[in-house]
Amino acid sequence: MTTTSERQQGHGGEQDWTPDPRRWRAFSVCLVAGFMSLLDVSIVNVALPSIREGLHASTSDLQWVVSGYALAFGLVLVPAGRLGDVRGRRTMFLTGLILFVVASAVCGFATGPLMLIVARLAQGVGGGILNPQVSGFVQELFRGKERGAAFGLLGATIGLSTAVGPLVGGLLIQLFGESSGWRAVFYVNVPIGIAAVVLALMWLPARSGERPSASLDPVGVALLGVGVTLLLPLVQERTWQGSTKWLLVPAGLAVLAVFAGWERRYERHGKEPMVALELFRTKSYGFGTAIGLVYFAGFTAIFFILALYLQTGRHYSALQAGLAVTPFALGSAAASALGGRVVHRFGRPLVAVGLAVVVVGLLATDLVLSRFTGSNVGWATALPLLVTGIGSGVVISPNITLTLSQVPVARAGSAGGVLQTGQRVGAAIGIAAVGSLFFNRLASSGGDWEQAVIAALRLCDVIVAVALAVALLDLRYGEREAAGSAAPAGQQDLRAHRRG
Hints:
Number of strands: 0
Oligomer: single chain
Mean pLDDT: 81
Shape: globular
């Protein structure tokens, strides 16, 4: 398969770039693999009761089944992106995909909680390895309007995978029964993953991202891993009792500060750091990463509290709860695909408009929940959730496109890994904060589920409003440019890369 020239990979320029005739087929493989790995963030939630019964798992075991995947996923994103940039994106993509498929099979075969937890950790590592390669391939394979369209489809995939997880899980449990349905949640990845491996070998560029002379920055990898791991209380908030756990959070932030200092020192010595901190001096990247972190804190928590409210508070089945949030998924998918196609025309204002629509949609959902308390609440929230989903779709894919628009192709994997890590950390913070408010309000109100879910949704709305404020700051101080017009900026290589 023809691939982008070595000179283009090093500098991200336009003049010597020739479109790969099989780029869309290669991208379709990336979408399938990315969808599987992101789906597994949320699909397991509706299977937890079945896992508890089938494996006699404790509450702590179940927490690890969910948060262990997210933690492992987030830990490897940036190092894996860096490895893809310098040792080959296809190699890392296949490594992550194969690990993910094998771990999925082991999850489905698990005979006890410990076996399932270990397999879920391995599954998270596999997902974290392959995902930054996807954004790297988009940067490499596409330019201009095509890149916006590709990121639009990627944004639709992210939105869909997050939103339809409960629906797919509910369907599988409905089809295979309570005792075996949870195993099907994991087994379904195996045939799809095997097909994706075969197609990846056929269509992905063979030498994508290979730069053997580039350094791997092992100290930076270790510091970043320790810093993210020390944020563990954010994903173990419900089962890790005691207030001393929160001391790990400032410790983690301190380690991340040391990491930043190390990266600067590494660069001053003429080496290429794992994360080029100069990227954050580019306003499109700095603001975009901040928007992603804050927005995912509010966005992801919506599904967490709605699933709890509908299944436990309103006694919906897993399938019914999944169907109730389907309007959000449909709106998000459609708007993401459209947003990716028009982002080159409207630029950052499109993201701000999307965030404003999400705020309005959440306020409408809040209003509906305060008026409808019966079993028909799922139908009543369909329209406001559809509106919220449309707004979300106009946020996610355009923000990814604009955030990575000025990143050199040689840095695409690690830059995408940093962006996704911010989103994962944001999601963990949001679920911890919103979940804490939800359960505290539920306890203080004597089990009033409506009061608890409304309070939690309002906090989600506040968080999204903060993301909107960041987007407005970006409009005022940032570089107001569309994704397509930013492509030549890739020629402005980072000093670190020039030294590499």
